UniProtKB/TrEMBL annotation:
PANTHER family: MALONATE-SEMIALDEHYDE DEHYDROGENASE (PTHR43866), METHYLMALONATE-SEMIALDEHYDE DEHYDROGENASE [ACYLATING], MITOCHONDRIAL (PTHR43866:SF3)
CDD domains: ALDH_F6_MMSDH
Protein name: methylmalonate-semialdehyde dehydrogenase (CoA acylating)
Phylogenetic lineage: Bacteria, Pseudomonadati, Pseudomonadota, Gammaproteobacteria, Aeromonadales
UniProt keyword terms in alphabetical order: NAD, Oxidoreductase
Domain of life: Bacteria
Organism of derivation: Oceanisphaera arctica
Domain Aldehyde dehydrogenase span(s) in chain numbering: 15-477
First-level EC class: oxidoreductase
Length: 497
């Protein structure tokens, strides 16, 4: 019998009593590697109750103690880095190097959470009026919830619960039902680091479980990363029930290449940023905008993409792994076919790629479309596969107008040797994260992940200072003391004048 994934409730790994189970499959073979429970309503309630009970004591825990928990946790994550990466590779199909990057970016956020004493400091101002001082400090919210996607099962949970808990909250994590094994391992190591019982709960399931959390009266804040439709539902439902919500959704990221860009660097970065991780990342470059004479790069780009092939996680020559599921592959194949029907020029078609020895894997080869227009379905929808679209424009102003007209605003980049062009682009572009000669500009964790427009619903973003603000309330005190009337403790012999 396949491994049955437990729930984490109240500091204990417990078997679910559910009658609804899902299969977790290896995307390279379709073999069942685990059975996942869809938690019952009673189990969801037990998780929230355990988190609420733990919050009573945890919120009073001194900030240095919370920071030391994070220091112990990041040390354990580093010690088990390669083990987690191997588990992640088998669970998601990612290549080992890609999986290592996933784990490491999460560890960086935990390291930042260990800096919580500095991050959560309030403000003080003496003499805001005669004899009056004003100061503020941050306090935790209570029970927070994280709903995470399949594509980064280490990094994105680590975006959420370490910072939330370092701020003094407790947390309920609902990881993707497609690859839950890595989040469970993260939870095991968190307990091994000395986390008190009830600080972190992990429950499993689909939309029904999510909906229970969205409306639960004891849940104060919800963090989500996933699809547009799910993000909109979570944001609307959560805010309708007066929750604080941050929901990271879809993307259509453009890389603008000017004629003066370093030719080989532009090509190499376009290939890696479009097909890396099988294109299954919200910061993938899915549109290349070739400006003016940069259109001459297209034949070289096509040749470079044709050299990349998918493969299994431990194949050192594989450029990326399989898509997460047969359903995901079918959707991408349908979009590729739609692109052809709508008149795009399919310069490279990976629809029929095969990987020797793994006939049942969700493989898709690099796919390149030229002659793309903005009214085509492949441009309007997020493909989430190793597919790159190419659009030609005459000048930088046209490129900026093109990107700004797109409804998404997650990430974009420009490749150029001109500082003036780069500055114009970064100033005028209406996208939250901009790279200059950097294809995927994901900020390091002392900044925040700042998608705009339909890529994000909410006010405060993930990790960095904005996450601390998201997971805390600010209390402001205005104080005046009447020195001439103050009298010391009657057991003392002096009076204050």
């Amino acid at each position: 019998m396949a491994y049955q994934v437990p729930l984490l409730i109240g500091g204990k790994m417990v078997p679910s009593r559910t009658e609804q189970w899902l299969e977790v499959n290896n995307p390279a073979t379709q073999k069942v590697i685990a059975r996942l429970p869809c938690a019952t309503e009673a189990e969801v309630e037990a998780a929230v109750v355990a988190a609420s009970a733990a919050f009573v004591e945890w919120k009073e825990t001194p900030v240095p103690e919370r920071a030391r928990l994070m220091l112990r946790y990041q040390a354990l994550l580093k010690e088990h880095h390669d083990e987690i990466a191997c588990l992640l590779s088998r669970d998601t199909g990612k290549t080992l190097e890609d999986a290592k990057g996933d784990v490491w970016r999460g560890i960086e956020v935990v390291e930042q959470a260990a800096n919580i004493a500095s991050l959560s400091m309030g403000e003080t101002q003496e003499n805001v009026a005669r004899g009056v001082d004003c100061y503020s400090f941050t306090q935790p919210l209570g029970v927070c919830v994280g709903i995470t996607p399949f594509n980064f099962p280490a990094m994105i949970p680590l975006w959420m619960f370490p910072l939330a808990i370092a701020c003094g909250n407790t947390f309920v994590l609902k990881p993707s039902e497609q690859d839950p094994l890595v989040p469970m391992r993260l939870a095991e190591l968190f307990m091994a680091a000395g986390a008190p019982d009830g600080l972190l709960q992990v429950i499993h399931g689909g939309k029904e479980v999510v909906d229970l959390l969205l409306v639960h009266p004891q849940v104060r804040a919800i963090s989500f990363v996933g699809s547009v439709a799910a993000g909109q539902h979570i944001y609307r439902t959560g805010t309708d029930h007066l929750k604080r919500v941050q929901a990271f959704a879809g993307a259509k990221n453009h890389m603008v290449v000017l004629p003066d860009a370093n030719r080989q660097q532009a090509i190499n970065n376009l290939v890696g940023a479009s097909v890396g991780a099988a294109g299954q990342r919200c910061m993938a470059i899915s549109v290349a905008v070739l400006v003016g004479e940069a259109r001459e790069l297209l034949p070289e780009l096509q040749a470079a993409m044709a050299k990349v092939r998918p493969g299994i996680w431990n194949d050192p020559d594989a450029g990326y792994g399989p898509l997460i599921s047969p359903a995901a592959k079918t959707r991408v194949l349908q979009l590729i076919a739609e692109g052809k029907r709508e008149g795009a020029d399919c310069l490279l078609d990976g629809s029929h790629v095969r990987v020797s020895g793994y006939p049942d894997g969700n493989w898709l080869g690099p796919t390149l479309f030229g002659g793309v227009t903005t009214d085509m379905t492949i441009y309007k929808e997020e493909i989430f596969g190793p597919v790159l679209l190419v659009i030609m424009v005459d000048n930088l102003d046209e490129a900026i107008a093109l990107v700004n007209a797109n409804p998404y605003g997650n990430g974009t980049s420009i490749f150029t040797a001109s500082g003036a062009a780069a500055r114009k682009y970064q100033h005028e572009i209406q996208v939250g994260q901009v790279g200059i000669n950097v294809p995927i500009p994901v900020p390091l964790p002392f900044f925040s992940f700042t998608g705009w427009r339909n890529s994000f619903y909410g006010d405060l973003h993930a990790y960095g200072k904005q996450a601390v603000r998201f997971y805390t309330e600010t209390k402001t005190i205005t104080a005046r003391w009447f020195d001439d009337e103050a009298v010391a403790d009657p057991n003392m012999s002096i009076h204050l004048k």
